[in-house]
Each structure stands twice: as C-alpha cells, then as structure tokens.
Design a protein that fits this description.
With 148 residues, the chain is mainly alpha-helical. The protein has one domain: 434 Repressor (Amino-terminal Domain), CATH 1.10.260.40. The protein has seven helices and two strands.
C-alpha cells in the first residue's frame, strides 16, 4: 500500500527521463535525456515508471563508465540491488536516493521541494506584527536610590 502511494506521488511530481540512444562514430553510445509529457506519465503503469527509472539509472551508470559493482560500493548497496533497480524491480526510496547521490544526479528530485508562499495579505499582517524598536529590559533594572 505504501509503495503504491509512493508510485502515485512519483507519477504526479517527479519528472522522469527517457532516453533516445544515438550512435556516434566508433560505435560509442550516448544517451540523450528528454522529459516524459504529462499524458505519457498518466498512461504509464507503475511497473513502466519503475522500469523507466531503472533505465535512467543504467544509462547514467554506463555514461560514467561504472560497473554495477562499483556503483553498489559507492552507494553502499549490494550489486544485486543495483541490478534489480536497473531491471525495474521494486526498490526502496532510500536505495534510489543513495544511487542518485553516488551518480551525482540528486537534481532529478528537485520537484519534491515544498515551499510555503504567503499571500500578500498574510505578509502585510506579519510585517505589522514585527517589532520595530527595542524597549529595553525592565526586569534587570535596579530601582534608583536617592543620594540623600
């Protein structure tokens, strides 16, 4: 159930990347990333989205010339976990974050940032409540005594 909620959240919030593979001279393969449209995302099943994430991880790993073993060591997970992630098998969000961090791809999570924005009326109200001057500390003052 929790995994289903996470996948739904990914569908709504996370811009997934898919790859067009272009062959260059000397048979070198390079991945060009492009975003899924909202329509494409809505048509995709949960398993298709998980598979697309796995393809993205695999593509970036290969672009960095890393083996699954090397990526696993950098990420702190076992090689078979990397394999399963790349094959589109279910994995945890923690594993995904660890792998993205080790691939220097955390920017793919930028859409998850929540920012609270105040409307102009709330902002004006807060500014009016803000203190403009210090009144001094009255509790630390000693009563004045007379010299008489």
């Amino acid at each position: 159930m929790m995994f289903k909620c996470i996948i739904d959240f990914l569908v709504k919030s996370f811009i997934l990347l898919i790859f067009d593979v272009k062959l260059h001279h000397k048979s070198k393969v390079s991945a060009i990333m492009k975003e899924f449209s909202n329509i494409e995302l809505k048509r995709m099943t949960d398993d298709m989205i998980i598979k697309a994430i796995g393809e993205y991880i695999r593509s970036v790993r290969l672009d960095r010339n890393l083996t699954q073993e090397q990526l696993g060591e950098r990420s702190g997970v076992h090689r078979t976990t990397i394999r399963d992630l790349e094959l589109g098998k279910r994995s945890t969000l923690l594993t995904l974050i660890q792998v993205l961090r080790s691939l220097d791809q955390l920017q793919t999570l930028k859409n998850f940032k929540v920012s609270k924005e105040l409307n102009p009326l709330e902002l004006a109200k807060l500014e009016m409540e803000e203190r403009k001057r210090a009144s001094g500390s009255r509790s630390n003052q000693k009563p004045k005594t007379s010299d008489w």
